[in-house]
Automatic annotation (TrEMBL), chain B:
Name of this chain's protein: Carbon monoxide dehydrogenase large chain
Alphabetical keyword list: Molybdenum, Oxidoreductase
Alphabetical list of PANTHER family matching this protein: ALDEHYDE OXIDASE 1-RELATED (PTHR11908:SF132), XANTHINE DEHYDROGENASE (PTHR11908)
Taxonomic superkingdom: Bacteria
Species of origin: Kibdelosporangium persicum
């Protein structure tokens, strides 16, 4: 176990003339963990204000603004064996420390939607550092991985002092950065039970690389040109990924179906307004993006 | 051998590209204190108390000399703004979120930031004004000429639109930074980090501190972009030097980005009601504009020049027989405003060009044709407009406006803009083309002073009053010097913005450095050349008329072996030299001043091709052409660079950037997640056509400024292109044209 103290400023050494710190966050202690059990032990010891540090792409920015003030960080990036995409029994497992960029560059049959969706996440340097587990833990309602775990009905695998448990993604996200994970638990992997060859995610933001104003994801099971089952999940229309209650079973796979589904989805949501878009605009985006996601999923 | 017109590699680059530049945060002094500003968290309220946490060195308004306020640098229209000036620390009332209320000093920036967080500011809330129209009126004035009422009375057509420009501003890569230190040996206050108008800031500070201006030495620095906001005199520009002076310890302050977005001058926010009178043939008879200008909480150094420039430049390059503009300058509980690159012109051009687009449709005349018809022609110039701005008359000096418009349209066609538009439309895209014409102004006075000195090695030093903001002014001034002396620019070193080396500098702003600074350097260099010839005639014992200068050698015409170098002449100018007359000053050096009577007016055309996603409202700018008349390009690469950067900022202002506030006056864009600057992905492919057809008659170099013309018509052209893409009959109404607004216009179809 390695431990560095980032001392609070009042405790700093005398050698002030030549050296000063240029960090921005409120004082915290830094710890490093080398395996999952070590992480859990350290979290238990450090108490509920300690946080896991993964890629740091969400957490460190919030700390720099002092919006997040963890008392301690436990860096998990040196834990081995959690950086993987593995096919099993028809499904796919993704390790918590798998970088977005790794998902982007790994094509897995039946899970193409994941690598395609990865390009929507931030910019290249962010994708090289940010982790799959970090994104799920952060639980942003527009995050691509959060939407896709709900769309594909994945399971979030958690480990904590009380052992290992699996939570369905559909029950994991509780809204505004809150999830089913306890502060002393760690996400170790995410399990996708079955492939989704007809799935797509599309989204809109004004600039490339920004968080989506609205994101729409869709999954279809198709027989010839007929829809057998459908599932639509939206981001940016509420505090957590929103499953749309539109069932397209029995309908033809065509533009008219997509357009009508978009309208139906828009009618169901009541999105909030903020600086990136009013609720009314988000409804319009929902109609447009749902139709586009369905068309892409069917293609 | 002339260096003017050469694409010389930038002299700044070896330093900057190797990380050897000297920026604000690069300076440190042993034992320095770090300052952190405590800012008001509320938009309006009475300051009840400020706590001083245990062990913290906190300074509030009670501690600073009474009545210290940020002065107006540019006074115009004889309007007194004394009641609206910003105190360096709020004393009893706070007027915007981000207003400095106290500062904390510590030995370490981290400690200062921690302690500043502990300072409790108790504020009794007062009603907040966010809407411009509800603000306090700080000034109102009118500008114009001709009989506007008569023009509108006899008009066959009157076209009227309302148009708003959103609040946005410059966001240079490097936030502000200052270091001040008293040199114990000389007793002088050393300041690092004032990078726009150092001499002005030195004088303001001397007055505030009650000390002689020569006890203050502002040093030359690099700056990571200025664009109008950096380097003006802000509260921190008093606080840091004052603390260093009174505590006799070095004091350093570095602004962070979150502070920057609420602390530096905002700009642009205006609402216009503009109308034009036309006869039945589409000839402009008159123009009227009523402007509401939001200046935020205070008048700062720019006073009311942005609203003044808005009106004075509004008629643009057109033949407008009668014009009347009125502006009301309103104070609201938002960050105070100042200039941002192309101040007043970005706003006015957006509004006027949108009006012309709407008018063209209403009159049934092609929009390029309508413009061509109403542009002043080459033989109508110079053209005097009976109104003044920045204290000088508006005299449009030289140019061929319709000629440049034609050139731009031919170039856009040659580059495939029109065929691309057609093919996009054929594929069902909502694509559109915008065309906008603009007039710029540059080369504002009153003066600039330059010193040119040749040393005994033949190296040449130039001390100019401009500042190096990344624009390449060192390269330009070296080229001007090399041209006048007939030497290699490599031997010229330019130092800008050091108040000891150049105590009479005017600074870098208003596209003035090349025009005014360049002309001063030219005059000083010519004076050095004349003196060199005079000395050489004594040294070579020939008449001055028989001497010529070639490649840095002063020689006898027709007698190849008989010559002296500038280095030889510099040696002959040393004290004790037999060639020096008894009262003649030593040294091969000259200081010269260039005074400006009137500004020079560059102009240009922007053409943009956009593709609108009608489902989301997203606007993609596919192609962008800037055609710009610069009089004479000292270094074409640098002119092009200025234009490209301007377009990038213009795209931001046209589509993305806005400082929004909620009803409580809380700023909504305080990070780069919310204040959307264009990235490389949003900046279009840009084509540039630099014209040198109309040299400026008012300066020896014939140059017109190039700093702003890439930005001036960006709002106008993109608004026009969107209007064209959507087939609107009315105006787009507002900038920035965010995707949400565009999507709304598609719905309304107005
Ligand atoms: C400019 C920018 C743009 C971005 N755009 C997008 C975007 O478009 N879409 C998107 O989805 N994301 C975006 N991100 C965020 C990025 O994807 C982050 O990488 C991700 O949200 C968090 O992953 P991380 O590994 O960086 O986690 P960290 O920042 O290290 O941690 C985030 C949170 O998760 C917790 N945590 C991390 N790992 C675990 C774990 N294994 N178990 C339990 N808790 C854990 C941390 O304690 C913390 O609370 C953007 C980030 C930036 C800076």
């Amino acid at each position: 176990m390695v431990k560095y103290d980032i001392p609070s400023s009042s405790e700093r050494s005398e050698d002030k003339d030549t050296e000063w710190s240029v960090v921005k966050p409120a004082a915290f202690t830094y710890h490093r963990a080398y395996d999952v059990n070590d992480t859990i032990a350290q979290l238990a010891e450090l108490g509920p204000d300690a946080k896991i540090l993964a890629g740091g792409q969400s957490l460190v920015a919030m700390m720099n603004f002092r919006l997040a003030r963890p008392s301690a960080l436990v860096d998990i990036t040196r834990i081995g064996g959690l950086d993987f995409l593995a096919k099993d029994a028809g499904g796919l497992r993704i390790g918590a420390l798998t970088r977005h960029r790794t998902v982007e560059t790994t094509k897995v049959d039946g899970f193409e939607v994941l690598s395609k969706a990865a390009r929507w996440i931030g910019h290249y340097p962010i994708r090289c550092r940010g982790t799959f587990g970090g994104s799920i833990a952060h639980g942003d309602s527009t995050a691509e991985w959060c939407l896709l775990t709900v769309l594909l009905e994945a399971w979030i695998v958690l480990q904590g002092p009380r052992g290992r448990r699996e939570v369905p993604a559909t029950e994991f996200f509780h809204g505004f950065f809150m999830t089913a994970a306890e502060p002393d638990e760690m996400i170790v992997e995410v399990r996708f039970p079955r492939p989704a060859p007809h799935a797509a995610l599309t989204e809109f933001s004004q600039r490339q690389g920004d968080f989506a104003v609205v994101a729409a994801s869709a999954r279809l099971d198709l027989a010839e040109n007929e829809i057998l089952t459908s599932r639509i999940v939206l981001g940016g229309v509420g505090p957590q990924p929103a499953v749309v209650d539109v069932d397209l079973a029995g309908q033809p796979a065509n533009e008219e179906t997509w357009r009508a589904a978009g309208e139906a989805a828009a009618a169901q949501v009541d999105p909030p307004s903020d600086g990136h878009g009013s609720g009314a605009y988000r409804k319009k985006l929902t109609a447009t993006l749902v139709a586009r996601a369905l068309a892409e999923a069917a293609a | 051998m002339t260096s003017i017109g050469e694409r010389l590699a930038r002299k700044e680059d070896p330093r900057l590209l190797r990380g050897l530049g000297r920026f604000g945060d690069d300076q440190d002094r042993p034992g320095q204190l770090w300052m952190r500003v405590v800012r008001s968290p509320l938009a309006h309220g009475r300051l009840v108390s400020i706590s001083k946490p245990e062990g913290a060195h906190v300074i509030t308004a009670e501690d600073v000399p009474p009545g210290v306020r940020i002065p107006v640098r540019l006074k115009v229209q004889g309007i007194d703004l004394d009641d609206h000036l910003q105190p360096v620390l709020a004393a009893d009332e706070v007027r915007y979120v981000g207003e400095p209320v106290a500062v904390v000093l510590a030995d370490d920036p981290y400690e200062a930031e921690d302690l500043a967080e502990l300072v409790q500011v108790d504020i009794e809330e007062l009603p907040v004004t966010v809407d411009t129209a509800d603000g306090t009126q700080a000034a109102e004035f009118e500008l114009g000429y001709g009989d506007v009422e008569a023009a509108f009375g006899e008009a066959g057509h009157v076209v009227r639109i309302e148009f708003e420009v959103g609040r946005h501003s410059a966001v240079p890569l490097e936030p502000r930074a200052l270091l001040a230190d008293v040199d114990p040996a000389s007793g002088a206050l050393q300041i690092f980090g004032m990078t726009k108008v150092p001499v002005f800031n030195r004088d303001v500070l001397a007055t505030m501190l009650g000390i002689d201006e020569n006890l203050i030495h502002v040093h030359a620095m690099d700056a990571g972009g200025g664009f109008g906001v950096r380097g003006e005199f802000y509260p921190e520009d008093f606080l840091v030097p004052w603390l260093a002076w009174t505590l006799r310890r070095p004091v350093k302050w570095v602004e962070d980005r979150a502070e920057h977005l609420v602390a530096v001058n905002h700009s642009r926010q205006q609402k216009h009601v503009i109308s034009a009178a036309f006869d039945n043939e589409g000839t402009l008879l008159g123009l009227k504009d009523d402007v509401l200008h939001d200046n935020g909480a205070y008048a700062r150094t720019h006073g009311i020049i942005v609203p003044e420039l808005t009106l004075a430049m509004l008629p643009g390059p057109y033949r407008v027989p009668a014009f009347h503009g009125r502006v009301r300058v309103m104070l609201t509980n938002k960050t105070p405003c100042g200039t941002y690159r192309a101040p007043g012109r970005f706003e006015g051009t957006s509004v006027r060009e949108q009006l012309l687009d709407v008018a063209a449709d209403q009159l049934g005349i092609d929009r390029v044709e309508l413009r061509r018809k109403n542009l002043l022609t080459a033989d109508e110039l110079p053209h005097t407009r009976a109104m003044s701005t920045l204290g000088t008359d508006v005299v449009l000096d030289s140019g061929d406006y319709p000629g440049l418009l034609d050139k731009a349209m031919v170039e856009a066609d040659r580059l495939g803009y029109l065929s691309r538009l057609e093919s996009l439309r054929a594929q069902g895209h909502a694509a559109g083309l915008g065309v906008a014409m603009f007039l710029e102004k540059s080369g504002l006075g009153p003066q600039e002073t330059a010193d040119v000195t040749v040393s005994t090695s033949g190296a040449v030093r130039v001390h100019s009053g401009g500042t190096s903001l990344g624009q390449g002014i060192e390269t330009i001034l070296a080229q001007v010097t090399a041209d006048a002396l007939d030497i290699d620019p490599a031997v010229v070193t330019v130092i800008n913005g050091d108040t000891v080396l150049q105590p009479f500098g005017g600074g870098s702003w208003a596209s003035r450095s090349t025009v005014v600074g360049g002309s001063a350097v030219h005059r000083a260099a010519v004076a050095v050349r004349e003196r060199a010839v005079r000395m050489a005639s004594r040294m070579l014992e020939v008449a001055e008329e028989d001497l010529e200068i070639k490649a840095g050698m002063i020689g006898v015409r027709g007698a190849p072996g008989s010559s002296v170098s500038y280095a030889d002449v510099a040696k002959a100018c040393r004290p004790g030299s037999p060639y020096l007359g008894p009262d003649e000053p030593a040294g091969l050096t000259a200081r010269r001043r260039f005074e400006v009577e009137h500004m020079t007016y560059p102009y240009g055309v922007h053409v943009a091709l956009v593709d609108v996603d009608t489902g989301t409202g997203h606007v993609e700018v596919l192609r962008y052409l800037v055609a710009y008349e610069v009089g004479r390009a000292i270094n074409p690469t640098l002119v092009e660079g200025q234009l490209l950067g301007g377009v990038a900022q213009g795209v931001g202002g046209a589509l993305l950037e806005e400082f929004r506030y909620d009803e409580a006056g809380q700023p909504q864009a305080v990070t780069f997640m919310d204040y959307l600057m264009p990235t490389a992905a949003e900046v279009p492919r840009i084509d540039v056509l630099v014209a040198q057809d109309a040299p400026a008659p008012g300066n020896p170099l014939g140059v017109k400024g190039a700093g702003e013309g890439g930005l001036t018509a960006a709002g106008a052209v993109i608004a026009g292109a969107i209007r064209d893409a959507l087939g609107l009959t009315g105006s787009v109404g507002r900038l920035p044209m965010t995707a949400e607004r565009v999507r709304g216009l598609i719905e309304e179809g107005t």
